[in-house]
Design brief:
Elements (H helix, E strand, L loop, with lengths): L11 E4 L2 H11 L3 E5 L7 E6 L2 E7 L13 E5 L3 H9 L11 E2 L5 E6 L5 E6 L1
Parallel strand pairs: 1-4, 5-8
Antiparallel strand pairs: 2-3, 3-4, 6-7, 7-8
Length: 124
């Protein structure tokens, strides 16, 4: 009997406005649009960069009225210094964003997208 094989994961991030989220991921983070369920008013779309695909799904604004933990993605990265410099020019960092070595031996930096979904980029 053959064993199942996990090939990829496509995390789905909640967003209030899919078009605005697409603009952020494309214009600020260098992703390309992989697909959208509607060309004018999408409720579900995907973005891709290199080997990473992230899905963006519309959620009603009322879901943001209560403090809820948002997803945090950890994305394995090559050339982290270059990526840090690229994003540093895009006005996406918060005041505490820094490229740093962690006590567990990674180099990483993190920030939030437009809807407070956490993005951590790291290398071992």
């Amino acid at each position: 009997m053959s064993k199942g094989y996990l090939h990829q994961v496509h995390p789905v991030l909640p967003v209030q406005n899919v078009v605005e989220a697409l603009k952020f991921y494309v214009n600020k983070l260098g992703f390309k649009i992989a697909f959208a369920d509607d060309s004018k008013e999408p409720y579900y779309a995907g973005v891709i960069r290199d080997g990473i695909e992230i899905h963006l799904q519309w959620h009603h604004a009322k879901e943001w009225e209560h403090t809820v933990d948002r997803p945090m993605l950890r994305i394995v990265t090559q050339n982290i210094e270059a990526l840090y410099k690229e994003y540093e020019t895009q006005d996406v960092f918060h005041k505490n964003t820094a490229l740093k070595e962690t006590t567990w031996g990674t180099w990483e930096f993190a920030f939030y997208d437009l809807y407070k979904n956490g993005l951590t980029f790291y290398r071992d």
